[in-house]
Amino acid sequence: MKPLFVNHSSSSRAVCKEKSCHQAFTSNEESHPLLSESLAGRGSSGSGSAKVSAMKKHAVLAIFLLLSMSVFADDDFPDDWLTVAEKTDFRATSSYDETMGFLRRLETAAPGLIRVTDFGRSGQGRPLLLVIVSSDGAFTPEAAAATGKPVVLLQSCIHAGEVDGKDATLMVLRDIALERKPELAKGVIILFAPIYNADGHERVSPYNRSNQNGPVEGMGYRATANGINLNRDFLRLESPEARAMARLVAIWNPHLHVDNHVTNGSDHAWVLTWLVAEAPQLDKTVDAWVGAHLPKVLAEIEAAGHPNGPYVSLVSGSDPAEGMIWDVSQPRYSSGYFPLRNRPSILIEMHAHKPFQDRVYANRAFMEELIGEIGRSGKELVRAVAAADAAEIARGRADAEPSEVVVRWDVAEEGDTLTWPAHEWAVEDSVVLGGSRVRYHPGEIREVNLEWRHTPVPELTLPRPRGYIVLAGWPQIEEVTAGHGLRAYRIEKDAELEVETIRLSKPEFATFPYQGVVMVEDFEVSRQTERRAIPAGSLWIPADQPNFEIAVQLFEPEAPDSLVRWGALSTVFERKIYIGTDVLEELAHEMLDDDAIRQEWEAALDNPDFAVNRSARYLWWYRRTPYWDETIGLLPVLRVMRPAELELEVWPGL
Ligand SMILES: [Zn+2]
Question: Is the terminal CB of the chain with fewer CB neighbours within 10 Å at N or C?
């Protein structure tokens, strides 16, 4: 059966392109320099093509410059400078090897401007490609910071079948490297991760994305080799890819992030849709920069023939007229993670039903306009994120006025009205599902005014702690703390401190895995102030750091992506020691001499279910003995609410 793109009669052939992509990487080591000599072709194991002498590079560059000035018309590059998508008339996307080859040629053409490196390894050992574009030759985070220019991180193929951003950005970089649009690189430093999910990208099939209109020769697979959806892993860091991305982000601290996707779900005239977390989830100064500049970018590309609108997330699958709602971006997603770092992340969702070529051109136009706009107004962006960082540090200082942190967000009831250029739809019978379904009829536009709810409002807030203590002996917490580059200290000596403890009870576990994990869906929480022993080796994570909200989201159990919810701390629910019923029977008889306990017991027995539940009765008595393990349900993360004296040494991370 041929792949069928819904709403389009496709003449596509179901050709599964043979890929000779699998480098024989045997090592999967994590420690990876951000400037890998081998990949960039400067080390002893570099490829021949990249080992050009400096003189040769200059000669090659001179030739390209000459050609670019004299021969090229717009988009009229010689065949050897076309991307795979262009060369194949948008029937194919570039493989990992083809992408790397193209980028290396750009680097050779513009060696002082473009550097190709990697930021880690995939599960199967592929280098995770990273391109750095800097007209100042600022190819390290320190050099980039010294320029004072904004750093923008463009990321594609997190869902590896959604390839548009990769093919589009390759064209933008070519325009920069071959000096068609050199001005784009003047005011901004670009980091480009073309194939974030490198392993999924090479699992090519024309059947990977049923709703996506091309490339017809196939596209990659959504998840990593071991089944992780990377766009659920920004906070938890289950995968080597997400750990590498978190490290890249921690080291470079880019001022803005773009995450390129392709989506379906409804049909409309827009070829590009977008989403960005707003204030107060995103710092309000940074949000103001986005609000002033993103609309300009979108208007420019609209004027250039690329219709666009906000990401379409319908309230009802059976009646589009019921409106749109942007669910709050949780930190498992890029759009929810970067606001924790006081940075915006723009989610781009190209409309899957549009032809691949139209999507790539629109995505390219967006990238180009955005880079240009950041170049022109980037100093303001740099100032805005610096102010947001400073404000977060100030709120966390030991002598700061008490304040609150937001643990969970909701969407405001009030929305805006939006005109949505939908394709005509009708409700029809569904053979597959029974009942009814919405069927869109492409070609006819039906403009409808929809309510669009999108503003985040705090749903749960807590008093801001002065910091967290992570008790010694919980490597899974230390790993994720280090992974995000949080500042922490090792407590040198045993201590005793007044802290706020968090105890959990009545956990409800999911009945099916999610990202390979049994999530904890619900529980009861109680917090109380008590003095506790803090063993030497515990970690102190102070609140006066710019990314402290990452710690809040990891450690406060009610947060949507807390370590508790992700099942990372589920041993706290387990009982490891027991009491013999004979011992307990003796103790119960003694305790019944106490009138208060006798009355409590009799009241408990009034519940007939309890009265016949042997396990509940056992636990009722066990909890009242000194043998009960008081750490059951106790989180190994303590909230410190008042400035504390501790002997500390700097913790280098892992
Ligand atoms: Zn996606």
Answer: N
Give the distance (Å) from ligand 1 centre to CA of residue 70.
40
Is 229 in contact with 158 (CB distance < 8 Å)?
no
3-class DSSP state of 348: strand
Distance CA 491, CA 503 (A): 23
The answer, yes or no, to whether residue 245 has pLDDT greater than 50, is yes
Output the six-digit token pair for 540.
Answer: 């102190």
Q: How far is the CA of 100 from the centre of ligand 1 (A)?
A: 22
> Separation of 157 CA from ligand 1 center, angstroms?
8
Residue of 643 and 274 predicted with greater confidence? 274
Please report, in angstroms and rounded to a whole number, the separation of the first and last CA atoms in the chain. 50
263: CA distance to ligand 1 center in Å?
Answer: 6
Distance 262 CA to ligand 1 centre (A): 6
Q: Look at strands 256-263 and 151-155 and give their pairing.
A: parallel
Query: Please, are residues 331 and 233 in contact by the beta-carbon 8 Å criterion?
Result: no
* Nearest alpha carbon to residue 356 among 77, 80, 172, 86: 86
> Where are the chain's structural domains?
77-397, 461-575+632-650, 581-622
Tell me the CA distances in angstroms from 150 to 131, 146, 334, one per residue in order.
16, 11, 19
Q: In angstroms, rounded to a whole number, what is the distance separating the alpha carbons of residues 518 and 516?
A: 7
Measured in Å, residue 229 CA sits from the centre of ligand 1 at: 9
Residues 246, 251, 254, CA angle at the centre, nearest 5°?
Answer: 85
Tens of pLDDT, residues 194-237? 999 999 999 999 999 999 999 999 999 999 999 999 999 999 99
Residue with tokens 């370590």: 563
Task: Give the model confidence (pLDDT) of 23-75 as tens digits.
Answer: 222 233 333 334 333 343 333 333 333 333 333 334 333 333 333 333 344 56
Distance 19 CA to ligand 1 centre (A): 23
Using the mean position of ligand 1's atoms as its centre, give its distance from the Cα of residue 228 in Å.
Answer: 13
519-540 per-position pLDDT tens digit: 999 999 999 999 999 999 999 9
Q: How far is the CA of 348 from the centre of ligand 1 (A)?
A: 9
pTM listed for this prediction: 0.88
What's the token pair of residue 592?
């019944």
- What pLDDT, on a 0 to 100 scale, did the predictor assign at position 3? 66
Q: Which amino acid would we find at residue 560? A: P
Tell how far the Cα of 210 is from the centroid of ligand 1, in angstroms.
Answer: 14
- Gap from CA of 505 to ligand 1 centroid (Å): 36
> What pLDDT is stored for residue 79 in this prediction?
83
Look at domain 77-397 and name its CATH class: alpha beta
Band the pLDDT of 5: cuts 50, 70, 90: low
Q: How far is Cα of residue 396 from the mean position of the Cα atoms in its chain?
A: 25
Ligand 1 center from residue 197 Cα (angstroms): 11
- Tokens 């230390």, located at residue: 478
CA of 312 to the centre of ligand 1 (A): 13
> Residue 619's pLDDT band (boundaries 50, 70, 90)?
very high
Residue type present at position 527 = R
- pLDDT tens-digit readout, 133-162: 999 999 999 999 999 999 999 999 999 999
Cα of 105 vs centre of ligand 1, distance in Å, is: 29
Ligand 1 center to 600 CA (angstroms)? 55
